[in-house]
Amino acid sequence: MVDCGHHHAHTSNTRRLTFAFAVIFFFMVVEVAGGVISGSLALLADAAHMMTDAFALGLAISAQYFAAKPADRRLHFGYRRAQVLAAFVNGILLAVLLCWILIEAVSRFANPVPIDAPLMLGVAVLGLAANAVAFAILHRKHERDLNMRGAVLHVLGDLLGSVAAIVAALVVMFGGWTRIDPLLSILVAVLIGVSAARLIRDAGFILLEGAPESIDVAALSEEMLQESDVIRNVHDVRISQITPEQLRLTMHVCVDKDSDVPSALSAAKTFLERRYGIRQSTVQVEVGSCLDRGSEQTSAERPPARDDAVSPRRLSAARPAPVGASD
Question: How many domains does the chain have?
Answer without folding.
Answer: 2
